[in-house]
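Predicting holo structure, 2-acetamido-2-deoxy-beta-D-glucopyranose bound.
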Amino acid sequence: MATCSARHPQLFIFIFSFCFLSLACGRVVTPNFKVRAVNLGGWLVTEGWIKPSLFDGIPNKDFLDGTGLQFKSVTVGKYLCAETGGGTIIVANRTSPSGWETFKLWRINETSFQFRVFNKQFIGLDSTAGNGITVVAVATTPGGSETFQIVRKPDDSSRVRIKAPNGLFLQVKTEEIVTADFKGDGGWRDDDPSVFVMTISGRMQGEFQVTNGYGPVKALQVMREHWSTFIVEKDFKFISSNGLNAVRIPVGWWIASDPTPPKPYVGGSLQALDNAFLWAQKYGLNVIIDLHAAPGSQNGFEHSASRDGSQEWGLTDDNIQQTVAVIDFLTARYAKNPSLYAVELINEPLSPGVSLENLIKYYKGGYDAVRRHSSTAFVVMSNRLGPADPRELFSLASGLSGSVIDVHYYNLFSDVFDNMTVQQNIEFIDTNRSAQLSFVTTSNGPLTFVGEWVAEWQVGGATKQDYQNFGRAQLQVYGQATFGWAYWTLRNVNNHWSLDWMIKNGYIRL
Ligand SMILES: *[C@@H]1O[C@H](CO)[C@@H](O)[C@H](O)[C@H]1NC(C)=O
Ligand SMILES: *[C@@H]1O[C@H](CO)[C@@H](O)[C@H](O)[C@H]1NC(C)=O
Ligand SMILES: *[C@@H]1O[C@H](CO)[C@@H](O)[C@H](O)[C@H]1NC(C)=O
Ligand SMILES: *[C@@H]1O[C@H](CO)[C@@H](O)[C@H](O)[C@H]1NC(C)=O
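Done. Tokens:
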């Protein structure tokens, strides 16, 4: 800061106080302490694997948004397929199922569904050709003529028939002709061309699935119950009395239109976030707000509230501006609360779907939105997942004071870790993670934050001592990050992913 302007004393004093107050001058702001945080994952943005019971009461819960279904015709013994991935007819001539043979559900209610194909069109009946019974995948926006029912065989739920909007069933006339004109009796015989053996190839359990699964009335009850019980005041007390000084709180974009967010989301998460700020202040904790789910989904995962695995965030200026408005809203609301420590503009945008160009456009807008309301909040920018240069945000972030780069380090999600022993995992932390973190931690660049890590791995049968050593190694290395670190997550049915459990059972000591 002292290098700002030495030649003009008055200007210096002016700029000095300006810098002091606003962080707007010196590029490098050294915080007074390092963040030792825990994520409050699965609270305001649903992740089914963190709390599966949240989904228990959904009727017909096999069929949620984003569920991938494959259908093998019992008569021809081959799979339904959107020829060329979509845009033309549906055929039944594929021997093994993959992308073109997988149909992603959009749930209308517990009995009605739409099917999205690989190229993102929806299955429907061809209204242009003669009798309107040919099954095609051409509609880009689904409506009534793209809405089907799935009828399961009562004593064998893998056998299904698909009822079209004209009231008739789909049938496989030949491998190359699939129509919606079967009036049969539903005897489920092997010579019935309307019977398919269904395989579920993938499921999603995010905020879209849980809220749309319950429907508006029930979702409101279930989510409010979840928000008021999953994380409570005494958790903040526990966090602050166990060597932590901050929480990173994932939120979804719909929080900005509380209490009446767009369907299927339900209102009330803003009240929960307000409570978090009250408790943070009471127990002296810092809050990092983390926009974990951006409109359209920045990575296609359930944790960014994707409906069907699609990643559509950032493709238009409107979408980027809508997201900037969410950041503006959140910062404005909490800027005066002394616990607001940082705002993370977006979590884990995925390369190459999110281009660097669009991401930078957004980060500039998001940074300015934070600075409109707060001169002191740090602004966290998540590195892209997938193929990306870990320093690709440096040229942007280095020019923006109070900026932080977020990197997530898991010894998971890659076959690199498949056969590693306990010792190899620990060496990977000491050598490879340490080198990766040093590479992004530079004296004149942005601050660095290991915003997600966990003492879990792919080692089978590891002992408590092994876990302790693994956790300790990570704390040692991630302690070098200049902004700090955050464990994923506070509470989780999977014990090692629950810092609450890890601390209470002596696996991690801070
Ligand atoms: C489900 O949606 C379909 C199509 O919109 C509608 O006809 C039907 O009445 C709905 N069923 C229920 C149980 O709401
Ligand atoms: C399936 O049928 C379509 C439409 O006739 C044809 O173009 C395609 O080559 C067939 N594919 C296979 C694997 O038989
Ligand atoms: C891990 O070991 C299994 C069994 O020996 C082997 O099949 C697999 O290829 C290995 N994976 C990697 C990534 O080395
Ligand atoms: C880890 O780093 C070491 C030393 O630089 C290197 O030889 C090794 O290939 C790296 N391991 C992985 C899995 O990237």
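The domain at 68-202 is CATH 2.80.10.50 (Trefoil (Acidic Fibroblast Growth Factor, subunit A)).
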